[in-house]
Amino acid sequence: xxxxxxxxxxxxxxxxxxxxxxxxxxxxxxxxxxxxxxxxxxxxxxxxxxxxxxxxxxxxxxxxxxxxxxxxxxxxxxxxxxxxxxxxxxxxxxxxxxxxxxxxxxxxxxxxxxxxxxxxxxxxxxxxxxxxxxxxxxxxxxxxxxxxxxxxxxxxxxxxxxxxxxxxxxxxxxxxxxxxxxxxxxxxxxxxxxxxxxxxxxxxxxxxxxxxxxx
Amino acid sequence: xxxxxxxxxxxxxxxxxxxxxxxxxxxxxxxxxxxxxxxxxxxxxxxxxxxxxxxxxxxxxxxxxxxxxxxxxxxxxxxxxxxxxxxxxxxxxxxxxxxxxxxxxxxxxxxxxxxxxxxxxxxxxxxxxxxxxxxxxxxxxxxxxxxxxxxxxxxxxxxxxxxxxxxxxxxxxxxxxxxxxxxxxxxxxxxxxxxxxxxxxxxxxxxxxxxxxxxxxxxxxxxxxxxxxxxxxxxxxxxxxxxxxxxxxxxxxxxxxxxxxxxxxxxxxxxxxxxxxxxxxxxxxxxxxxxxxxxxxxxxxx
Lengths: 215, 302
Hints:
The complex is a heterodimer of chains A (215) and B (302).
Chain A: H1 2-21, H2 25-46, H3 53-79, H4 94-111, H5 126-143, H6 147-165, H7 174-202
Helix pairs in contact in A: 1-2, 1-4, 1-5, 2-3, 2-6, 3-7, 4-5, 5-6, 6-7
Chain B: H1 2-14, H2 17-30, H3 39-48, H4 60-79, H5 94-115, H6 119-150, H7 155-158, H8 163-188, H9 207-210, H10 216-242, H11 249-273, H12 282-301
Helix pairs in contact in B: 2-11, 3-10, 4-5, 4-10, 5-6, 6-8, 6-12, 8-10, 8-12, 10-11
């Protein structure tokens, strides 16, 4: 089962790069949905000897429903009014963020094998992929101005945490994971409301306008 | 030995057929019949029979440009295994010579464009030089990844039978390199997402604008050189993604030629379904390709 797992993890990193380079919110939402679907395959591919079959299937199904279907639909709904405007001026340009993302990936893949993990690594590429994805999320959160792309950054960050969580999948009870997924959904919901209000107040999703608010 | 010579014959005679295949695919997508496959050859012969016109501002550099470009491309072709198990000329590190022979050809074309003193050609030359500078890391990181994964330093071995087991152990990395080299091939051959070969607006052209002042036999040399270059990059992509499909040399040769046709069809599909990128977005695409190659190298070094 090594080869398909390698491929899924590499594809997850590729979606990271794609997100760093893409400027259209709609494309970004689609890419995050694809990444969510890829992540949903991870628990199944990682499952060892089928001891926790129900657990694994529930986790995969939960991730698929929340990450690949519910959240993208919600984001599409939240952005339906705000025409497909591209992100006009990110704080740091696309080429530079892509470069930083690639450097982050290189660092993650080169040095994470030296990290002392409490649980012996289940797959050598799992931790670097998690770190690269979280780093991508951080970059997106820091460098983009629009609320939509910032929410995308948050989602990618959470995807990174999800990949890392796969290390502990055997130890984490289903309830904890369900809680994490629900938290995420609630957070996106709140952000959707924020976007809605931003849109109504300023008829744009540019978060830098929030600084003009007083008290 | 016969196969080694046959691959060169196929290279010299078959290269102009690739633009023909691309034109046919684009015509099918547009619902037309399209020109016959041999049309590029007919165009070349027609151009070769014409006289040349030289502007009085140009010097010998302008006349030497097309010949140097074609000679450099032909020399680069001797280093690549074009279907046979090995190339005609091979030595350790020949992939560097391959890349810079193509670079020499481009240098000659750029100089010839600057020699005309036309402002449009100067713009095209500046763009060509800029984009090839951004494409170079993608190509080199990809070639270094290949060298690393096959533990060989000559193109004949890097793209030979050693590639087969690597696909089993490091498939994802090779896939990334293949995609990256394909993007570089599109950029280097002035195909659609980077440049539009059929455009007629000087402001947006890159490669075509540099050859506006060439006419007759010179233009034929340039177009023939462009076809050869496309065939070379096709060879890289095909050998990289198919490996040597069969141990039997003749079967492998047939598979290679089939792969070249598939490569041309893929380019035709890309050209029919995508629009040209804005000039500002092109470096972003090429940096993305470099990121893919770099990531592949990191995966292999781990």
